[in-house]
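Priority: medium. Attachment 1 of 2:
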């Protein structure tokens, strides 16, 4: 059985108003690759800062290794002290993943779930046949496997819901690590400023040391503000949003798996899926005479 991609959100017309026979493994469309919005936003913010620096002086004047060590090293150390090495490493891994992740379109996922439900309703053995095609999505593969093995619907719901909550909790913790780093970075910048001021005041009798001490005092505040507000805070928000999108996709799969296991009518499953989908992502999979006046795919 070949895997095809759904290229339309329009409902399929079939005999007697139902959807046409299609491959039950199709429907979920992968969106993106590199996250252009995040990269463009970070690049634009950095570009604005660099242009402002270049317009008023030399870029080299804003490079100070001691200031970088205080801000970057201090932020990493304090953040790690607040969590653990594993939490910090996982947070950076999640932050990197959101820049290049490929996410499923919720509307396409809902259609795929309905296709699977219809296929299972016609021929229950279909679920086992499509399992090899679902290996690219581990959660969907596991959901269909549980149904194909005949586990009770309540057990399937409990297992899948627990996994959704566990993964979501991990992502929220990663966002918390990045959020904590965005709070610590400006504070480390302030600490560096105080260090620089103390050094400057302690060496007023040596004019040659006043300049480096003043640079340390000012640049640490600059580095802390940039690291906290331009880098870490946006990444934390992005990880939180990715966690919400991932939870939505997994919830759709969970609803579908439980409905299929209970052998419910796919039309009821459509209503359950639409109850979870955002208003702009709801689907109209089945043709209904009473719905002819409404836009399809809305």
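Attachment 2 of 2:
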């Amino acid at each position: 059985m070949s895997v095809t991609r759904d290229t339309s959100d329009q409902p399929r017309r079939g005999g007697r108003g139902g959807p046409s026979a299609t491959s039950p493994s199709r429907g979920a469309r992968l969106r993106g690759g590199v996250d252009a919005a995040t990269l463009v936003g970070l690049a634009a913010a950095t570009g604005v800062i660099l242009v402002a620096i270049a317009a008023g002086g030399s870029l080299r004047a804003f490079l100070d290794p001691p200031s970088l060590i205080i801000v970057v090293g201090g932020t990493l150390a304090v953040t790690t002290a607040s969590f653990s090495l594993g939490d910090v490493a996982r947070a950076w891994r999640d932050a990197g993943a959101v820049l290049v992740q490929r996410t499923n379109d919720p509307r396409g996922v809902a259609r795929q779930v309905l296709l699977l439900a219809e296929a299972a309703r016609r021929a229950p053995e279909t679920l086992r046949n499509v399992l090899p095609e679902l290996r690219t999505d581990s959660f969907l593969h596991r959901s269909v496997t549980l149904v194909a093995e005949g586990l009770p619907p309540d057990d399937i719901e409990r297992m899948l819901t627990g996994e959704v909550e566990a993964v979501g909790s991990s992502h929220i913790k990663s966002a918390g690590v990045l959020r904590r780093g965005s709070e610590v970075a400006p504070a480390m910048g302030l600490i560096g400023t105080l260090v620089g001021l103390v050094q400057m005041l302690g060496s007023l009798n040596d004019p040659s040391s006043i300049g480096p001490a003043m640079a340390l005092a000012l640049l640490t505040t600059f580095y802390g503000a940039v690291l906290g507000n331009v880098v870490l805070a946006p990444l934390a928000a992005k990880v939180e949003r990715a966690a919400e999108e991932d939870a939505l996709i997994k919830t759709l799969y969970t609803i579908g798996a439980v409905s299929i296991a209970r052998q419910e009518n796919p039309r009821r499953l459509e209503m359950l899926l639409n109850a979870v989908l955002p208003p702009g992502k709801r689907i109209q999979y089945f043709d209904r005479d009473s719905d002819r006046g409404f836009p399809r795919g809305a």
